[in-house]
Every structure is written in C-alpha cells, then in structure tokens.
Amino acid sequence: MTLNGREAVPGDQVKEGDAVLLDGRPLSPVKKKVIVAYYKPLGLVCTAKEADKDSLYHHFDYPEKLIYVGRLDKDSQGLILMTNDGDLANRIQKARYGHEKEYVVRVNKPVTGEFLQGMRSGVPILDTVTKKCRVMPQGEMSFRIILTEGLNRQIRRMCEYFGYRVTYLKRIRVMNVKLGSMKPGMWRELEPEEEKKLRKMAAEREVGREAE
Length: 212
Known about the structure:
With 212 residues, this protein is α+β, with helices and mostly antiparallel strands. The strands form 3 sheets. Strands 5, 6, 7, 8, 11, 12, 13, 14 and 15 form a 9-stranded mixed sheet that branches. A 4-stranded antiparallel sheet has the order 2-1-3-4, with no helix packed on it. Strands 9-10 form a two-stranded antiparallel ribbon. It is built from 4 helices and 15 strands.
C-alpha cells in the first residue's frame, strides 16, 4: 500500500485529498456515517423531488446529501433524523421494531378522559386498528402521545375518528433523541454518546425481533 507515492507505514494518517493505492489501485475513501437531528419547519415536505419547491432539501443546509428517517407531513413540524447510514435508517423506520416517537398535539376543542382513553386503546383507521399507545393530557386542548408505528397522518386520523381536529402537531422525540430547545430550521449532529445509544437501541430491537 502506498500513501502519496511512498510506502505506507503503521500510524500514517490519511487526510482528504491524499492518494492511497493498494496493489496500484486507488482505494475509495470510507464515508463517515453521520446522524443529524433537524427541526423541520411547518410548510416543508418530506420528498426528494427536486421540482418540489417545498422539499425540505431546499432548506436543509448540510454539506452532504442525507436521507430522512420517517416523515412529517407539510402541516406538522418537529424532529426528523437525517443520515447517510441506510441500514440504520431502515431499522429505525420499520414499524415492526417498535421504536418510540413522541409528539405534542393541540386540537380544536377540550380533550376529555373518554377521548384520551380511546386514543390509548387503539383506533380503527386505514383498514387497521392502531397499536395501543401512551397518551398524556398536556393542557385543556392539548396532549402528548407516544407512538411505536407510523401510519399515514396517523395522529390526525385518530383524532378525526373521535370528532377532533388537530391544529398543531410537533414531534419532540425519536427514540432517545430529543428536539430540546432547537428552533425551526436548525440542525445538529448527534453527540457521540447520544449516537451510540441510538445505534444500540436500534440493534437491540432488531436482534429481539429476529429471536421471536
């Protein structure tokens, strides 16, 4: 192996732009796997279509093209994970792994105990019944909900079943990653320990499912 035309030795560090050859053939650089927490603002769409002016990619200012992990509809805001690690993205997105996502929701009229219990117990939408979930009152007309699945416009459809209309929806957590004090449009790379825990949780879920 050679580095910039000379024989490589143990301890050599390869920097961007260096020429590394193995048996005379260039080695492709190993791309660093990154996970970014992004606060998707209202009005942006989770789509990779360049022609869509509302695509989050026209507003997500990161030096590398990343894929989004899970969706938020145009009228919703909050946390989306972005990554170049396709395997991890698949493990997080697959509903069968049961990864938690937490939301704060406001509706158009006061929430009742009956409504909250109905939301927790499973709601018939989209030719299926939603999984039981945790729902906690947050205020007179708002609540927090923790889902382990991601059906199309699930929370809005669940509320509509009981005669409620969602007026505000924000995702505040995906697994162990929290939105925190981020503002719309902001992003941050995960802290090392935060990323380590996320990867561990994803791997444990996958192993657990395979063992069933």
